[in-house]
Amino acid sequence: xxxxxxxxxxxxxxxPGDTPVLWVLRDTLGLSGTKFGCGISVCGACTVHVDGxxxxxxxxxxxxxxxxxxxxxxxxxxDRIGRAVEESWVRHDVVQCGYCQSGQIMAAVALxxxxxxxxxxxxxxxxxxxxxRCGTYVRIHAAVKDAAxxxx
Amino acid sequence: MSSRAEALGRYVACGLALPLAAFAADPVSPDRSAGLQxxxxxxxxxxxxxxxxxxxxxxxxxxxxKRVHYPAVQRGVDGKGVAPLNCAxxxxxQNSPVSHAPPGLDAGGxxxxxxxxxxxxxxxxxxxxxxxxxVFRDPRTNGGRSLAMLQxxxxxxxxxxxxxxxxxGRQLPPLDKAAFDGQVGIWIRNGAPCDRxxx
Lengths: 152, 199
What we know:
The complex is a heterodimer of chains A (152) and B (199).
Chain A: E1 2-6, E2 9-13, H1 21-28, E3 47-50, E4 53-56, E5 69-71, H2 80-91, H3 101-114, H4 120-127, H5 137-151
Parallel strand pairs in A: 1-5
Antiparallel strand pairs in A: 1-2, 3-4, 3-5
Chain B: H1 3-25, H2 32-46, H3 49-52, E1 61-62, E2 67-68, E3 81-82, E4 85-86, H4 87-90, E5 106-107, E6 110-111, H5 129-137, H6 147-156, H7 158-162, H8 177-189
Antiparallel strand pairs in B: 1-2, 3-4, 5-6
Helix pairs in contact in B: 2-8, 6-8
């Protein structure tokens, strides 16, 4: 049994400790907002927050989050910064196919939590680890800047 | 005394004698030439991409070709990256079975990937020979380690040992781990010399 906080609520799962958090979320707990992309920690589609920091859920063993706070896309809007990012995403009509977007939003929130007024270079660097096959990068960039203004 | 007891006695005596013999074989005065030869072997390992990719002046490199790291992460004060892109964002607790995926390292059940910290970058990039040797030897540039601590670090540190278990698709250091540890021992036993002619 492995216990952790999931989106602010206590959660216990009975799975082998080396099970990736992504599998636990999608298969064990039925939270399908976090996506499987590359499976090797490169594309960012499965980005979640562990104790407020970005992690790739596809390579994170669930044993490593025991006793920690796991936040997923399902609850990111509960937070002021998360809500600002989601609203900015809608204003800028960022999404095309949408598959990478939960990871993009989690990455954007992680950036704005440590950098309230990021420069273009900050945004470019922080978001460069999340890939989008539709090429929505320009809208993503604009939405992050706009969200930063909203929380200023 | 039974033959079994005699045999045991010889075994014990032999076991006790071995370290003494090994000690007696050590040079009374350091053999500078042997030390320099040992460092030449150590250098081949230090400049291998498994080591030098993170022993750099700024952001890390990656891969056997020592390319600029994707994504463009930074060292950070503690060598664990700068939020929101920390090393642990992508480097988890174990290597991927797939070639060229970010490798991982377990540190007490948590992601353990890191670079040298900002106040002691331990950069070896672009160095060789005497210059590399001095940086490696000097506690002011080697992480504050005495020679004994340096030997211990090389022999037991998990991140150092990772270089010999880097996962698929990554070049191994040119010496195996036991040979590397042996060369570090020879270099230190012989006074940890660095080639003066190059300085």
